[in-house]
Amino acid sequence: MDKDNKGILYGMGGWSQLFFFIFLAVSGLMLTVFILALSGHAAELEQSVKAIRLASTIQSVCFFIMPSLVFAFLCHENAKIYLKTEDPYRASILILGICLIVVIQPLVDFISYYNQQMVLPEFMAGVENWMKANELAAEKTTTLLFADKTISGLILNLLIIAIVAGLAEELFFRGCIQQIIQKIVGNQHLAVWLGAFVFSAMHFQFYGFFPRLLLGALLGYLFIWAGSIWVPVIVHTVNNMIGVVLAYLFYGTPKYEELATFNLDQNLWITSLSLILTVIITLFIYKKRILSFKDES
């Protein structure tokens, strides 16, 4: 991956890059379906934890990681430079990023609660039913994964849901999609938010769309400010780990239901504190990035 490839597909325009990347992603999706069909586990996806974990791993590799690496290798002089896998970053930005993803959790839960109260107009009833069906399917998957309270189940969930998914999705959404969009629109902030929109929409869980949009934007800015893919990868992984550990400890208990109904009336002070700390830490990260620019110059 570290050899120069200028001349293969180097110099593609932004829209050409986007369509080529979509082609790679669709090819990866088809490969995912093909491998699952060969494995004989495709029919078990709604009832087998083993099948769900296998499908998730295959999807991460074939749909997210492989298209990202192939795209970076074919379309740019040096894949590692494009994906920013070797760029140095300040440890302080990584530490602040991890602190940020921890303190933002109550704010995310608050937004998630009110997102779940969303009701579409009557003329969009068909869309709303489709969204609810997707939500129910995701809930069934979640129930199967988190009902496994064994230590091995926890380790596998941390590996697949947190580590593998964190790496795969950051390579795909921040490493490729966000950079392709930025080449098209020519604006970092617009690229971050459009990339976050795609990130949230592609999860097909629209009753969690807005909190995921916020997290996607946060990861997008960390990618820019840190100048390295590893900061959003690690922060994304920590975010997913928090969810997995909380589910391991509380899933199926009243405490977990309490966490899922994080309304403002009952949690005003912690939501306000979360918002204040989120803003403060975000400003610290931004300031660190500005100082690093000055140091480099």
Structural summary, described in words:
The chain is mostly helical and 297 residues long. The protein folds into two domains: 1-83, no CATH class; 86-296, no CATH class. The protein contains twelve helices and no strands. It has helices spanning 14-39, 49-75, 79-83, 91-103, 105-115, 125-146, 151-185, 188-201, 209-226, 230-250, 254-260, 268-296. The longest helix is centred in the middle third of the chain and has 35 residues, at 151-185.
Please describe the structure with a list of short key phrases separated by commas or semicolons:
297 residues, mainly alpha, 2 domains, 12 helices, globular
How many distinct helices? Answer: 12
Q: What radius of gyration results from the CA coordinates?
A: 20 Å
Helicity, as a percent range? over 70%
Calculate the terminal CA-CA distance, rounded to whole Å. Answer: 29 Å
**Can you give the mean pLDDT?**
90
Sum this structure up briefly:
The chain is mainly α.
Topology:
Layout: H1 14-39, H2 49-75, H3 79-83, H4 91-103, H5 105-115, H6 125-146, H7 151-185, H8 188-201, H9 209-226, H10 230-250, H11 254-260, H12 268-296
